[in-house]
Amino acid sequence: MMRALLLVSTLAASLIAGGAWMEYQDFLSEPVTLDQESLVLDIKQGTSLSGLSEELTRLGLVEHPYLFMALAYHEGKAASIKAGEYKLSSGIRPPELLALVTSDKVVQHAFTLVEGWTYRRLFAAVAKDERLENLLGDNPSAQAVMTRLGHPEEHPEEHPEGRFLPETYHFSKGASDLDILRRAYETMEQVLQEEWAQRDEGLPLESPYEALILASIVEKETGLAAERPTIAGVFIRRLDRGMKLQADPTVIYGLGERFDGNITRAHLRQDTPYNTYVHQGLPPTPIALPGRAAIHGALHPQAGDSLFFVAKGDGSHSHHFSATLAEHNRAVRRYQLKRR
Fold first, then answer.
1. Contact criterion met (CB below 8 Å) for 294 and 219
2. How far is CA 201 from CA 196, 206, 229, in A?
3. Cβ contact 86:40 at 8 Å
4. Residue 16 pLDDT more than 60?
5. What pTM value is reported for the model?
6. DSSP 227
């Protein structure tokens, strides 16, 4: 090995000091040959300088492997090649290519966890993402995932629903499904603690977990950011007055696969732990993955007197808010029954 290094090092010196000087200079200034505007170069773990140089030659990016090796030794980067995916742009020159593959500027992929997803949908999404190493299998159980994350389901607060923060997570090649879930779990924990510390005073919520449960209901009730504090205000006032929340999304969650897309009066009467038409207070766990805006809204509810709301159903995704049952019933007739 030492002999080979000495040989290549000597070659580098001879190229620069000897008759190959012009060839070496031309090599440094000549752009790497690309057949398209950009190319992703995938360097496997454990790839040596000689292996990379030969691969660059095989791909037609450089003419001779010894020229790239000479450049690396001359720059003192012969042992600095890093595994990963690197995006090569048209016009890149060998010194820039060397600087790139010895840097940390690897290609970053993105996984977007969508607000309102359930944990089941999240687990399925990471399992199907071919860019992620699959450590959890194609259909991991909630208990198996939470155990791998170091949070086994021995307590209701370790139920996976609601415990992963929706946002876009960037990762490089080699990341796993477990890596994404761990980051989403830890980010949710951090955000929840930060928001809880800044909550409004006097809320009928005893813990960050109860705030998470309420936020998940708010998340499922509206996709409009401006409405989240208003809807949270309705639920907070209902909790304060001992009224049932009567939130349709909790009923749907409790039905699980039995829900066919059409909620009925029979569904509203069906006794599941999540039916807030039947049971008072918050359901036992979140019903979805709430975003930070929903958590913030739940902990900073808008003041007012409204106790009811109904979707307008006009394509705006907005709601009509009412302070009395009589007003609410009129709104239901106007926006729901009439439309049907």
1. yes
2. 11, 11, 15
3. yes
4. no
5. 0.84
6. G
